[in-house]
Amino acid sequence: GNSVLGPILNEFHRASPGVLISVQTGRLSEVAERVLTGSVGFGLVLSTGPIAGLESELLRKEPVLLLAGRSHPLACKSSVELDALKAEPLFVSLRSSTNFRSTMAALRITGFSYQRITLETDDYATLKSVIAEGAGIAVLPRAAVEQELARGDLVGLPVTFPIPELELRLAQLPRHRATPSERTLMRLIRERLTSADMPPAADPSEDAVSPN
Known about the structure:
By secondary structure, this protein is an alpha/beta fold. The chain has six helices and eight strands.
């Protein structure tokens, strides 16, 4: 919500200036609950697979990065071994969150150890600002840190082991009757966020799209 949606929402607003857009951000469980209860028309989520109770389409695979501030000693290394990370303070999403469980489950496959968790937060902005000070490392999807990487505030550590990717999914209730504006926005999200190597997602309501 704080990274990839801004340009898309601006593009939608320019094309449909009379439409009110309501955007809510939250953890995966919170977004799924809002879609399930119908308080929002659809959700954009990062997950490790389909979301229970919802119809979701895979837009793209999302790389997961181990990150550090540019002043961190590991940031200047040409490669970072697994053993070099075990003593590092780790900053994470809330340990009770689905985000934390899915990301750490992916890392456990690599043998990554995270005994030194020293900070947890439900806010990516806080997490990124703390890492940028150089005090520790964190694990975040690349989409959440594109701007910080481009500015050089954060560095993706060149680890020597593969980190499983997450999935960026567009989720809605099965048989949800989307409004014309919702369909237009979802179509724009598909066009802008679907990876080039993913087959185009079918939109069963495409023939119902009409201008506002």
